Amino acid sequence: MKENKILKLIHIAWRERWSDSQFGINIKNVLPRGVSGDVYNLADSILQQALIGSTANPLVLNYLKHSLCAHLVSHAAVLRRIAKYEHFERLYCTTSLLDFLDSVIAGVTCRAKTEEAILPGALVSLINWLMQVFAMITAHYEIHRELNSEQSYMLGQCCLVIEKVIKNQFLMAIIYVGCHEDPDYYGQIRERYAAIKTSLTNSNFNPTHPSIEAYLHQLAYVDVHHLDMPLLDIQPKPEPVTYCVQPLLTVDVLLNPCNDTSYYVAKIQMVQRLKKFSNTRLFYEIVRAGFVSLSNVMETTHDTMWGAFTFFKVPQIIKQLQALNRAVGEQTPNDYIPEVVEAIELLLEDKLLLDFMDSKCSCNIIEYLLNDWTKQHLVNDMHVKHFAAQREGTSVLLQKRDASTQAPSIINFIIRAEVPLSGVLKTLSTDYNKVQEALLGVLCQVLVGNSFDLILSVATVEGRLKTFVSRLILCNENSKQVPGEMGKASIIRSTLFDVSFLMLTFIVQTYGSDAVLSNNGDSFFEKWVRECMVERNKPKNPRNMIVMCDENMVDELLLNLSKPEPQLKNINITWQDVCLNLPGVLYQVLIAWEKETLSSADVKNILDNIKRRLFSFSVCATSFLCAYMCSVKENELLKPLNMIQQFLAPPSAEEMSSQENIKERLGLSFQIIRKLQHDVRPTVNPKSRSITLVQNLVSQTPLMDQFRDVWRTVNENGWLPIRAAQILESLLHAGGAAWLTTRLLEEILKCKYIHDMMKTMDIVFAILHLDIELSTEALLTQVVPAMIQNRQGEDIDEPHLHVLARLCVYCIISAVETRHYTNFSYQKKRSRSHDGDDMDLNNTVKMRKINTDSSDNSSSNDFLGDSNLFNTHASTHLRNTPNQLKESLQNSIQYIFKIFQQFLQTDKLSLKVYFVYQFVSLLVECGQERVRLVLNLLPTNLINNLLKVMLTDQISVGLIARLYDLRTSCGRQAAVADLTLWRNLKLKEQSIHL
Q: Predicted confidence band at 299 (pLDDT cuts at 50, 70, 90)?
């Protein structure tokens, strides 16, 4: 009924030649109050009457324009109706519609929710209609090779409308949303564009509009990159000096030395995306980070670890990065990587660092490094000669130094350690019964000097540490005591048991049991580690150890050990049983000593008898005593401490000569015992280098003083020394993630200049990777909200807020990706996690070296050959984003978004509101699609409220379009709602200026 009245009114208006305002007044009498004309197809009715004849009725079209201005009809309804017009042979009607579009297209918007729902589809339909018009004209030209004046005018108007659409960011954003609604329909537009392109090519037709082909292509392949988004980068180009790569690698090598190459590659790729580094710059930073860290370390263990990392792991990291970042179809030389050559050119400019490294390593470090890289086709011989020549003068000066002052090169030992490692692995894999004596000689030789450190470093970096451990465990199992065995065979077996046990214990102490042992191993050593070995951050209950002991064995051992000269070989207890039952023995000794039923001399005699036979017994006893010390009061520590010191007392000359290979085993057992003792009660002046490997939680110095001292070192250097990383890790465990994160952010706030802020932020970001997930959660839930709410306007202002927002975004991106790239790491993260959350390693992307023979290198899991090993599947898998967030991280992100909603409960622009804008904008800018899971957590009205407070010049349609997942209907609805609000606010601003 209403539609008939509308048609009748239009006829009357035409006959009586009503003005626009007259039509508007009278049509409102027909339409119910507050109801849009779209409900009764007003736009459709007007256009039907306007396009009846061969030419369009201009007066009726003016009625439609007035209805648009008076909000009687929506733009979406009008555009959708125009897109349905198919009588292209009526040139004047089509031209009139193009003229009409030209006059209204700049003002397209929405005024109601129902209009928002149909506008994207209407605009996409309009684009298809414009393509049809253009295609009709080009097809006519292709056939007749000419256009008449009407067709030329129509083409010009079509191009003009297309240009206005392209240059209107709001329309392009709506079209971008619309192309996700019906991908099949949008596919038809692309097919139509392909036909137009073919027609233009075949006819050699050049439209008068210079850019129309580019515009058509942009409409057919509309992309989010066509939508402007102002960047918040303080430094839009990569900074000349970065302070992020070296600390990040330092933390990773400290925490995860056993991890596969792909783990490091994923983290470095994250930094590359955040910093916008080219491959050349990235490779330079990696090599420089290795040299800087290697120049700093003093302890042999870290010397060898960083040397092995720089010479063995870095080339593999570079090869994987180059393969993953290579464009499809890109051709590179077979014998070198151009970006590596360019990176070395940059490195040669850092003469002070290279001079120091040449002096420290007693060689031309560049030449030494590149000679090895030629074998891996990173550089070729010509490059080696060229770069070596540039450093030749320094090398000559180095050679002229007095030999007595020249330090031996650790690099030579590191490179040479690869061959002994393969030899040890090969020997361990042979038939145990045939090579017992030879195997004993090989293992004892490994303990001479720092060979063990070197071999462990190379095995770790090459990914062969777990193989080494598993074969040592098998050797230890085969060496368990056999009842009745006597003579030389028994001595060799016991020594093998002792050596393998000590080596395994040292490895577990260094890397952690999670990194080197399987979860459910049933060997004697694995059982002992699970039940009896005291590990850092894994305390053991001494009562559980005692409960496990066999009372009869404990009594028999006590009786035998109390004798002046015990004969353990004459009792029916094996070596492995002695190790497991020593806690019961020592507990009885401690009780008797406390009750004074045993004298100090008696206790000394028992302890001497324990360590006299096998040094493994001393280690097992010390482990129990350390666990016991953690469970008693301060005044009860003296006796167990004295007992441990007795195990560290040097044996007599007679005892030293009574056993073979005693010196090497004794030295290793002392290192293990001192480390066990230091983990529980550190000494002020540690005598053993093994003690200095890890800073302990227990310290006499207040945490704040420790932090100030270590930060002073970091700040002065501009990079993170190994020792500083160790102390910071201990502070993380002692003070907690929130405490350490707060202290680090305070250092950022102390900076007064942007350069210093960005430098400090980079170092802080790397340090937070000591536990990036916990640190990010603390940052979002405790640290940043409290700082902004409580200290705004005091010392937190711009650009501090920008730097804080950037740090938060960096941490979120890293925390989101951590679980993803841990999934294709071979080893679990050496567990610093506090929630026991095991990573899913079953779906690991493993890039193994293809090795068909049965050599020991078959266990090497990340030494890749050529880059063609990187197939498309692996590369794609590495680039995929995770499909879910860790629950605690998700809760933290939701919490800070709720805080943001509180900030936006105002109509005034403040620093808090601007921080929200920067946070959201940087999240999109830095994370892009990789933080889609985070963006999906945005509250529905957050951006809407932000738009009402912020200026539309700062919030762009490009930002809004990137915030939502347009593959879902909810995401599209939210995007259109925010885009429409942005558009209406923009129109309001323009009307105010007018």
A: low
The answer, yes or no, to whether the previous bond of 799 is cis (omega within 30 of 0) is: yes
Contacts of 110 (CB under 8 A, 6+ apart): 74, 75, 76, 116, 119, 976, 980, 983, 984
**CA 832/CA 813 separation, integer angstroms:** 20
Contact 479, 424 (CB under 8 A): no
- What's the rounded Cα separation, in Å, for the pair 582 and 182? 74
Interior/surface letters 806-822, b for 16+ CB within 10 angstroms, e for the rest: bbbbbbbbbbbbbbbbb
The whole-angstrom separation of Cα 909 and Cα 894 is: 23
Question: How far is residue 254's CA from residue 387's CA, in Å, rounded to a whole number?
Answer: 31
DSSP conformation class of 239: P
Token pair recorded at residue 779: 């940052």
pLDDT tens digits along 208-226: 888 899 999 999 999 998 8
Share of the chain residues as helix, strand and coil, in percent rounded to the nearest 5? 70, 0, 30
The answer to whether the beta carbons of residues 869 and 847 sit under 8 Å apart is yes
pLDDT tens digits for range 628-644: 998 888 888 889 999 99
Q: How much is the pLDDT for 793?
A: 57
* Length of the chain measured in residues: 994
Using the predicted structure, report yes or no on whether residue 783 has a pLDDT greater than 90: yes
What amino acid occupies position 476? N
Per-residue pLDDT at 660 exceeds 80: no
Please give the Cα distance from 300 to 450 (Å, whole number). Answer: 8
The reply to whether the predicted model has a pTM over 0.90 is: no
Side-chain half-sphere exposure of 972, counting CA atoms within 13 A: 19
Give the span between the Cα atoms of 94 and 72, in whole angstroms: 24
